What does this fold into?
Amino acid sequence: MRIATGSFTNSMLAQYNNLVSTESNLQSQVSTGLAVQSASDNPTAMQDTLGDIAQKTAQTQYTANITALQSRANVISGSLSSLQTITSRAGELATSAVSSDTSSATLTTYADEVNNLIGEVVTAANAKDPSSGQYLFGGTASGSAPYTTTTDANGNVTGVTYNGNSSVNQTQIGDGQTLSVDIPGENTGTGGARGLITDSQSGADLLNHLIALRNDLTSGNTAAITTDSANLQNDENNIAYQVANNGVQQSQLTLAASYASNRTSSLNTMISNSSSANLVNTMVQLNAAQTAYQAALESGTKIMQLSILNYLS
Amino acid sequence: MNLASRSMQTQMTGVEVSGQNLANVNTTGYSRQRVQIATTPDLTTSIGQEGTGASAVSIQQLVSNVLNNQIQSQSSTSGYWNSQQSALQGAQDALAEFLSGSSASGSTSTASDTSGTGLSTQLNSFFSAFSALSSSGSTSNRQAAISAGQALAATFNNLDTQFGNLKTSLNSSLTSDVTSANSLLTGIANLNGEISTAEFSGGNANDLRDAREQDLENLAQLTSVTTSTGTGGAVNVMVGGQTLVSGNTVSDNLQTYDAGNGQLLVQTMAGGVKLTLTGGSMQGTIDARDNTLATMQSSVNSLASTLINQVNTIHNSGYNASGGTGNTFFTGSGAADIGVSSTLTSDPSQLQLASSSTTTGDTSLALKIANLASAAQSTLNNATFGDDYDSTVAGLGSALNTANTQVTDQTQVTNMLATQRSSVSGVSVDEEMTNLMTFQRAYQASAQLVTTVNTMMGDLLAMKTS
It folds into this structure.
């Protein structure tokens, strides 16, 4: 085939451009670690990768939610421990009070102690989450403390009012999976999360039971104290249930955190498979392209230097 | 002496033609020329036919009309895909959806740092912010959700602006192509006239034909053309079935017209015939604008309007931190005007997350909005927001990928045809220098013939005087 002078240089320039373009593309892959950087590089891989990144973002958020819930569950656990100690002590006092050798002075002392326990329960029931500043046991009602008290002239609590509700907020901890670690202070219905202080399912009504016990201790009504003791057992059982439930929830959160971590690793692998460059292959290809470019330049310039003009004098 | 003189003139013409070829070795569209030399008529003598030498009878242009027609046709295809590639690359840049990452160790990419940009990131952040808000309705979480909504809305607004700018740019490109085409049509008609005049008395107007061929190829880049041979060496040009150049006359020109909503198309200027173009950069621009780009803009707009409706339906049914209601989350109706209510941006407590006015600590509506991330939307062909957008990105990527492949293939075809044409019409310096020496030697020989005859004549005259 006859090769014109311009044809040769045009072909040579086109080849140079192709080789430089290849080198540029490979260098970009090496420097970013990505074989796919835009949709036109590989539309299917881009679509898969964007979907995987969205999934990964969701898993990251689930992990953050889980961390927040774990923190709150730990705070609730502390409150539950306090309440467990209080109910246990109240039960002991009630049991001791109905013994035959208990004097009226002792009953008064017990009544004073129960009075203090009532105050401790109110304090525990009005606890806040330190990180969010929200009340832990007010349900989804917000703004005011879950429990307000009515006191007599001596400052003794004579009645309590629950300002919250029986609902709890659910939080995403996985795909289609939500959890709430919150406990409403009161649930007088037949469904939903069981109430911490008052719960119709378990028969718990801790504050009122403590008030009744204190009043009965003060009046020395041992028959009523026996009833109070039985009621306090329901309260103790209810707190025990809440403690156990809190433990189960913390286990759920640990499992969910582990799942989110594994899922994130899996998604990273999928993203890598879809979009990452195989650096070994890419480097080999880059070396090959560099060699080809060098050879093209050397051969091109050598050929360009030679023509019939070199031999004309 | 006449024979020698004619021979010298003939070889001189050869030298001139080689010189012309060498001078145009780098001229785009130039076709090499050859001097055609033929023996002059013999003289009848008593001893038979006696030669009278040779003379240059014509200067021939070496061209292949088959290759020229193929290149013209492929120019339209190249122009179409080049303009598609340019437009779709602009669309991909406007979408700004790229993966980013870095191989920090330089050894391997773990992809743990691979992230997206553009709308996909903002969508993910928006739903994540509401997921966090469902965990705690604190002021900081409320502010974060509102900020995520603002960032998402701003990205939609920016995309819509970018699409609008791109459409304007493509319309400008189309108008510019039409202007160029009209200029080329005038040039072709003028060249037809000049060629006809130049060839009237015989011979070929080689350089003018080269210039016209170049104009035809440039016109074919802009739009698919059909040509036919007219009288006097003229070429008639038709575009979209309409004759635009007939001989040395421009029958009609092209102009753009607005088919509605700023959608510029092409028609003939005088006839007002709306043209259906089949190739070239004009049709590539129109197709990119009216197909891929329009689909993408419509998809993004549907995404925005569906998001507005879905989020507002949930949000508007709720109550804020004070138990009040009546605010929407998103304002606007599509990608162009989506925004977050100024009431919310100035006071995050106005965010309506509670399902009842009495349960103001309730964040169940935040959870519902967060759950929208994985909810199939009937207005988005039962895809989720993320999947629908990813599909839009992939659709554009696929169209651009096809354009890139076509441009690469077309470049190969064009280069191959150019090489083939060059093998026929291109100038070779080596070849021309060789021809130059050949003519030079022939000229020297002819000059020597004059010298010889002159010496003989001198000898003859010397015989008379001696």
Chain A has two domains: 52-268, 278-306. The mean pLDDT of chain A is 92. DSSP finds six helices and seven strands in chain A.
